[in-house]
């Protein structure tokens, strides 16, 4: 209990600059944890939604029927968004270029590539902030430490007989800034690495679906072109 009171006392007695550094680091840590929880839920939901849609897509359902189901929802994310973008563009182009399967598929794949880019961007939301917190927090804490130690030695030079007890509190409060910086940085780095890997896995899954869906549409375009001929 005494240690806790001592640390609290050091925080209260710290210089303005060190207190400001600590306040910034605490704010960054709070924001970081908030975004960690949000990204964790968003990525978990994305994995579940992708599995559900893939099961529905490969169940043999008619693509037009599936498109109507997806379009009826208020919003679409992940594979649903890619499917909707691809099928919508395919149907539009097929009406005007039914005898040119290559042109139809080029436009369809372009629409799905744009959709894939948007989905990856959505999945990566807040990750740059976590990377920033993880990289700069230790340096901000180190700045507070250097400033506190510098002030301690300046005060030490102003007295004739210096003792360790005179500089120990200043050095201790300065080191707390480094500790808070590490406390903010370590979870952010761990979360960033974990979420980045999850985004890479999802992006690969999305890209594979785009290729497989494009092959299905290509076969339909060629078959319809043969029937028209």
TrEMBL record:
It is a multi-pass membrane protein. Keywords: Cell cycle, Cell division, Cell inner membrane, Cell membrane, Membrane, Transmembrane, Transmembrane helix. Belongs to the ExbB/TolQ family. This is Tol-Pal system protein TolQ. Coiled coil: none annotated. Residues 76-206 form the MotA/TolQ/ExbB proton channel domain. Pfam families: MotA_ExbB (PF01618). It is found in: Cell inner membrane; Cell membrane. One of its GO terms (cellular component) is plasma membrane. NCBIfam families: tolQ (TIGR02796). The keyword Transmembrane helix applies.
């Amino acid at each position: 209990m005494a240690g806790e009171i001592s640390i609290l006392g050091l925080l209260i007695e710290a210089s303005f600059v060190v207190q400001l550094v600590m306040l910034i680091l605490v704010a960054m840590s709070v924001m970081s944890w908030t975004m960690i929880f949000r990204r964790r839920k968003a990525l978990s939901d994305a994995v579940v939604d992708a599995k559900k849609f893939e099961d529905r897509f490969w169940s043999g359902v008619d693509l037009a029927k599936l498109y109507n189901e997806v379009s009826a929802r208020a919003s679409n994310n992940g594979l649903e968004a890619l499917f909707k973008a691809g099928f919508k563009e395919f149907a539009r182009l097929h009406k005007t270029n039914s005898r040119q399967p290559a042109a139809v598929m080029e436009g369809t794949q372009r629409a799905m590539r744009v959709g894939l880019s948007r989905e990856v961007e959505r999945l990566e939301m807040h990750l740059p902030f976590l990377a920033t917190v993880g990289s700069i927090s230790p340096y901000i804490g180190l700045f507070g430490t250097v400033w506190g130690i510098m002030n301690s030695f300046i005060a030490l030079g102003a007295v004739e007989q210096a003792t360790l007890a005179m500089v120990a509190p200043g050095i201790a409060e300065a080191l707390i800034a480094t500790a808070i910086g590490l406390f903010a940085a370590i979870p952010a780095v761990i979360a960033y690495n974990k979420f980045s890997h999850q985004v890479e896995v999802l992006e690969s899954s999305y890209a594979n679906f785009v290729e497989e869906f494009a092959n299905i549409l290509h076969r339909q375009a060629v078959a319809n072109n043969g029937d028209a001929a």
